[in-house]
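Late entry, written up from scratch paper. The run itself happened at the end of the previous shift, but nothing got recorded in the book at the time, so transcribing now.
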Amino acid sequence: MCGIAGIIDFNTPNSTLINKLEFMGEILAHRGPDDNGVWVHDKLNVGFSHQRLSIIDLSKNGRQPMTDQSGNWIVFNGEIYNFKEIRKNFENELISDSDTEVILKAYHKWGKECLKHFRGMFSFAIWDESKQELFCARDHFGIKPFYFMQLKDGFYFASETKALLPFLKNIHPDLGALKDYITFQLCLGGKTMFRHINQLEAGHFMTISVSGTMIEKYWDVTFEPDFSRNEDSFIRELKEILKDSINENLISDVPIGAYLSGGYDSSAIASIANLSNNKNELIGFTGKFSKYGSRFDESSYAREVALNGKFEIKELEITSQDFLDNIQKVIYHLDYPVAGPGAFSQYMISEYASKHRKVVLGGQGGDEIFGGYTRYLIAYFEQCIKAAINGTSKNGDFVVTYESIIPNLQALKNYTPLLKQFWREGLFDDMNKRYFSLINRAPNLIGYVNWDMLEGYSSRKSFNEIFYGNNVKKESYLDLMTHFDFKTLLPGLLHVEDRMSMAHGLESRVPLMDRRLVELAAKMPADIKFKNGEMKYIFKKAIKESIPASIYNRKDKMGFPTPINNWFKNEAKELLFDVLGSKSSINRAYIDNQSLLKNIENEKDFGRNIWGAFSLELWFQTFVDNHKTFKS
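Output as recorded:
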């Protein structure tokens, strides 16, 4: 795990290139505190910067930037979990035990086709001396970041946007991204909150040469249900892949830890990892807000998993003072605002874990792959009623019927307000319109946003293009919903996972983000994956023997909630008013923070609109108002 950066300019000699690269490295130093390096081409204006977090091959042989001695150079961030398997193709040619050298050799042997061989999380750039070309790639799911911008003086890339910002004369928000954020609290496609800066999307590679820049997709998940297989067949294969993926994620020359929430995903990963780890070194890490009662404290479940597996667990009590002391650091490390205050909690538990481990396993991805969000049940329930009324509930191979879904509706017990809002208008409308209304946050901000300034881009159009993608059949509502979240929400969550761990020089691995596992789930018919409307049905069946019965039977999974309402009403109220009531905030062009501030006192709960405005304003103050340009 590392921080990477680079610059390429085919036209203008630049004597300050090495100074720029060193400067970018200093900004990314938190991502790799163990070592650093800079390479500059001896003839061309091309160079790389690297910050190293040593996980595999701790020797100097693993240092980067790395060359293959034929003029090709690489900077790499991430882990290739199957690198030992790949290295058998050129065992006698290697001088290190690192996966970085394996990538270089694989590229030399297969070119861009090398990407078909990799399993893992990665972003890298390779200077191809023979082609005089830069080859850049990002992993299948976007676990590892890759940002870039094309300016008059060259092409720049980095692991975080903050390393690119000093080379922009002025910082302006990308209005399309801002509109996405207001609508979904995340950005769609390759947009970022910064104008001129984009991200290489998951499953894509790009080349940069004198001929120009080319971006191409090399992988995508395709939802093609296999109706020839039964439930037991899928469960057996799912178990095998899950165990193998976790074992691959345990490859490390340093001890391993695991985030532990007491939910299905993290409990299964930690339990299986503990059984596979013959060094008996696994430590679980959990956070809690016990002051606010059981609604904000799942530590008892986490302890039960650790006790069942007989491994150590460390618990962190997170306080309102932690929030006051760290929330600005959180926004800085995130680079742009994100949905919900959970990133703060992740920041605190990552800092705590980094004091004991350099690598942790996390459970991201399970909800998007296997259908774990309650909103899927809400949307499906409406469609089941519609099908029952129309007499079509028994038609097709994709149906979860009205009769079968009833026993699982108890999961909606705490969602009555959302159901009232959802069914207020548009009932029984098309599936895309109904799901859009479930995730659209914009109605809560009507009257607070200057929509006229955000015209010219349609978040709704972008939503439809993703929702009805060519890689997903339109008959399966579950596949349409999970596909959209897989393409949008999951990258946002992986963004948080990466930034909050790397803020403390901690490598976070996500075993559920395995290409084989994702492709298997995409083959599962909805009536198996989401049987009778039971969220994550097939995944729970596969892990049943690995976790305690009390975890398996849980109906109250919380998702690491943060008591932000309590804090904004009490200990953090002054901070909230200082941020939204500042002079710069009141004069903000796109958001009417003054009107929002006047209505705060009338709110029973400080919902996502308050958090969204608060974190957005902190972002403006951190990056836009305090922008500093690079001085050579």
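The chain has three domains: 2-172+195-217, 220-562, 564-624.
(Scratch paper discarded after transcription.)
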